[in-house]
Amino acid sequence: MQDIKEKTDNELVILVRQNPEYLSYIIDRYKVKLSKYIKRRTNISTHDMEDILQDIFIKIYLNINEYDNSLIFSSWIYRITHNYMIDWLRKNKKHINISIDDEESRLIHILEDEGQRLDKHDSIDKENLELLKKALNSISEDHQEVLMLKFFEDKTYEEISDILKISVSSVGVKINRAKKILKQKIYE
Amino acid sequence: MNNEQIIQKIKDDKLKPISRSFFLFKKVVVWFLLVISTIFGAYAFAFFFLKIMFIDFDNWYFMSNSYDRFLVENIPIIWLVLFLFSLICIYFLFKKTNKGYKHSVLFIASLSLIISFVLGMALSKILAHKGVLIERFENEKMMRWTNPDSGRLSGEVMFMDDNYILLRDIKDDVWNVNIDYILDDSIQVLNNHQMIYIIGRLDYENNFTACQILPLDMDKKRFRPNPKLGIERKKGQNKFVQDLCDFVINPK
User: Fold this and answer.
1) B176 forms bridges with which residues in the sheet?
2) What is the predicted ipTM?
């Protein structure tokens, strides 16, 4: 048991291809991460969340042969989740509604420039966090998505590029543009 | 959510992963369409390029009263549109390949343009070398130059005398062309070329008065007149040709 838990994602994928039972280890590894990601994207009930996660893991199982190990497995799994959520939101006629109650402290990083801490002028206090949350919900879904992946899921530009299937330079452009729009919305 | 529930559902519904061959097939289809689009793009570019080569940009004023109209009537827009369409297909298909999304729009657009251009140029050279297409384009060019009502004739000189020549046009009609009024440079053209363009005035059926003669850069072996060719005879004189002939034939 201990041995299997120490296996890499790619090793687990090989095992899942042979026996669906091993999917359980993948579920254990990604259940919490994916549910947080989904929860951040939309305020859904626990029941809906369970249904969505079940569908996503079954989809992962069905498409396991599509996985190409030149890609990071977590990027592939997030890509499937991202695509599933787009379809789900479209079918259910819902919009992304960022829910960030538990990790407000991370919000501050959104407004920082690359490798640079916020200066006094730009610093944002607790009162303004609400303003930031509102602003986050008012920007386009595209921009919300890249910001979430970068600042809440801690994904690198390369990983975001693999998840959203856009070029790394487009990721950079989208993040910078999203931050600029956010700042405008907050300070205007 | 219980892991066991998911595993159980997979077992109960007898779900199996989609086969690798299906994903491989999808990849092959995308690459196949990509190759087809690239070849089609190159073909469209080659056609566009060769057709452009056969347009008389230098002599447009003999063909039309305005340069804009001349361009609209002569630029092979359909091939240009097909070429652009193939570039769009290449772009989207390339994006669909495994790592296609990693490249920027500019990179993919430039790459598809360069590949289509290079292949198109190579293809146009091959097609030109084979001569089949060239013959077709030359015929089209001669057809554009066979409109006696507008003062244009072209073809092969069959007989030449001091005052007239016999000219066979692309429709295999023989014309009696009066060359009394042509200037020295036109006589030189006549002395050195058998394939010619004539700018002049229609006197009556199969009789024409030449005002200027230009060389037609074409291999005589490829000239195959065909009486079945449908040439639309456009009415209305070309202003430039009319003025030129008035000046040459009836100088004041």
Assistant:
1) B166, B207
2) 0.80
pLDDT value at residue B222: 77
Check CB contact of A157 with chain B, cutoff 8 Å: no
Residues of A in contact with B1 (CB under 8 A): 31, 49-50, 53-54
Rounded to whole angstroms, how far apart are CA atoms B230 and B186?
29
Domain assignment present for B108? yes
Examine residue B221 and state whether it is found in any structural domain, yes or no.
yes
Backbone angles phi, psi at B145, to 5 degrees: -95, 10
- Tell me: the pLDDT tens digits for B17-52? 999 999 999 999 999 999 999 999 998 998 898 889
Task: Indicate the number of domains in chain B.
Answer: 2
Q: Are residues B99 and B171 in the same domain?
A: no
CB B116 within 8 A of CB B83: yes
Parent domain of B72 = 16-130
Domain A2-91, CATH among 3.30.470.20, 1.10.1740.10, 1.20.120.80, 2.40.50.100: 1.10.1740.10
pTM listed for this prediction: 0.77
> What pLDDT shows up at residue A117?
47
Tens digits of residue pLDDT in A111-149: 665 544 444 445 556 666 777 778 888 888 889 899 889
Do B56 and B83 share a structural domain? yes
B93 and B157 assigned to the same domain: no
Pairing of strands B174-178, B207-215: parallel
Is A102-187 a CATH 1.10.10.10 domain? yes
In sequence order, what are the residues at sequence separation of 6 or more whose Cβ sits closer than 8 angstroms to the Cβ of residue B107?
A: none
Q: How far is A160 from chain B (nearest CA, A)?
A: 11
Q: How far is B113 from chain A (nearest CA, A)?
A: 19
Domain ranges of chain A: 2-91, 102-187
Q: Report yes or no: B163 at the A interface, CB cutoff 8 Å.
A: no
How many Å lie between the alpha carbon of A22 and the closest alpha carbon of chain B?
Answer: 9
Average pLDDT, chain A: 83
CB-based contact B146:B170 (threshold 8 Å): yes
Taking the Cβ of residue A30 and every Cβ of chain B, the question of whether any pair is shorter than 8 Å is answered with no
Sort strands B152-160 and B164-168 into parallel, antiparallel or unpaired: antiparallel
Q: What is the mean pLDDT of each run of 10 residues along chain B (252 residues)?
A: 85 92 95 94 90 85 82 89 94 91 88 89 81 78 85 89 89 89 83 87 88 84 77 69 79 63
Cβ-defined contact of A28 to B20 (cutoff 8 Å): no
- Chain B residue with CA closest to A17: the answer is B17
